[in-house]
Amino acid sequence: MDVRKFVVGCFDDEKVLFPAVKQVRKAGFRIHDVYTPFPIHGLDKAMGLRETSLHTAGFIYGITGTTIALSFMSWVFTSNWPLNIGGKPHLPLPAFIPVTFEFTVLCAAVGMVLTFCYLCQLAPGVKKHHFHARATDDKMVMVIECTGPTTEADATALLNAAGAHEVHTQIAETGWWLGTYDKEQKLYDESYVKVPH
Amino acid sequence: MSVLKYESAVRPPLVDGHKTYHQVTEDIIKPIEVAPSRLWKIGFSISVALLLFGVYSVYREVTYGIGQWNLNKTIGWGWDITNFVWWVGIGHAGTLISAILLLFRQGWRTGVNRAAEAMTIFAVMCAGQFPIFHMGRVWMAFFVLPYPNSRGPLWVNFTSPLLWDVFAISTYFTVSLLFWYTGLLPDLATVRDRAKIKWRKRLYGLLSFGWTGSTKHWQRHESLSLVLAGLSTPLVLSVHTIVSFDFATSVIPGWHTTIFPPYFVAGAIFSGFAMVQTLMLVTRKVLNLQDYITLEHIEVMNKVIVLTGSIVGVAYLTELFMAWYSQNPYEGYTFWYSRANLFSPYGWSYWGMMACNVLSPQIFWFKKLRRNITVTFFMSVIVNIGMWFERFVIIVTSLYRDYVPSSWSYYYSPTIWEIGFYLGTFGLFFTCYFLFAKWFPVIAVAEIKHILKRSGESYKAEEQKVLEDKNLQEFEHVMAH
Questions:
Q1: Which domains does chain A carry?
Q2: pTM of this prediction?
Q3: Is the pLDDT reported for residue B3 higher than 70?
Q4: Which residue of A has its CA nearest to B444?
Q5: Is the ipTM here above 0.95?
């Protein structure tokens, strides 16, 4: 297994974290990830992550459900087993609305949750590398990977200067459990990033 | 929406006291890490006892047949379907709070949404029991599903409201469960990372799916919550609409009215909020969460109760008016003789319903009463009794006098096994709720942290001070020039 070195810095306040993210990226470092105990709006943008397209997937699952439900019921009632129910029409579209709607919602919801779990690699019993135990409590944990140009000393100094406390170095094995979101991070661009103040 | 979004000072804080992020975690997660209290054990034991009685009642019904109940020639739906509609109605508040209020950006939902969603799931589980066991031969229950079979294939009737119900309830249950559980993941991870005992770390490690709190994961999580909320919003409305179709598409006087869908949905929200109040008032007291489920939360929910209670009241009056205005003798007989007449055999249930659902919630027009915990608790129980009466009135008073007097049935009262089944669902509901309150964070920890800096009491006060100083400076600046 390949082993990598990371510099981990903890922040207490999002007001310090935002400028720190900006500073670190401006200095040309790639942020491996920032682990936070709650969703911080705007942090994804500040980190240069692209918008998720999970909702598009949800829409596709939804219309798939609509199509399956409508075509299945029409097929059953007109061709497979056309029952005479009180002399009513064989293709009563208004009466198909409830089942079609429910099935659409079901497909969209189940599909989206499964996709979400797949994309984030979440499943019962999955073990991942946790950089800091309090990242799910009250610390915002910024992790910078030490690669060629990024030395441990540089990253540590930068994080300290940016207001992080408890800066330390960690070694972790590479693999899917580390996440690979630094790859999709765009390089810093002043016009793109809006840091709330 | 940025982190530091300004929230008007006029709005009361949603989190009382001076809290740090860590304090929020401590307050909400602590009850999971300590041994259950005596009160919890007593409550849990009573619930399990009720559940066992319910299991025995159902065992009697399955073994000896539906004759164990007092359903008769015209009253084919009695306590069972009354209880079904009642539980489904209660199951509406959770998703309403978590979905519709999320779309409306109502900050106060964060204090109650987790427990309300759990309540929804348990209530729908209870509701589902009734139509399933009402089938009689319960081992044939899978016949309601459209699966390829050797009988033709003979498919289910997709135009029947009873089948719509199958789809509506099962979809509602699934989506509510997914919504609830994806919301729980980050909080379960918090419990995992705090755990000092090995088995707890392992258990919550299993349950939290390996959540790390990565920014990208949060971004997807937010997107997922928003879309699920968007999907659940029409879903909530559709479920009770479809339940009302069970009645409204029939030709029974008192049932085939076009106002049923909105009237049922309003009633469902009404009873659901009442049940949330009942549970929240007890939960906040027992788990010491008064700082998170504040009087503000209680007052807001009481406002919803008085609104929906009044909507339901208008629906009752509209029905009475239409029964007279239409001059249909069957409608008139049902509404004015079987229901509104106090001296008819079931008149007591109609007036019980009117008193509990329409008259008594009107006390919530007074702020003092809305903010009174004892009154709220008492009212929340009254409302649910009233809503049970409503379903009983709709079902039984429409059925017991058929079109032909020769088929009028005798006075319907339930057997001990019918009552036992109902009590059993209470047992199921509270057993689940007790387990939930002990093993899961009853308040969405991450969501509270998310609103803490803009709605927490001390943070709001600080922000207000900064703004006032700024105004003063501006004023001085203007005066100086």
A1: 3-49+126-184 (3.30.70), 54-119 (no CATH)
A2: 0.90
A3: no
A4: A38
A5: no
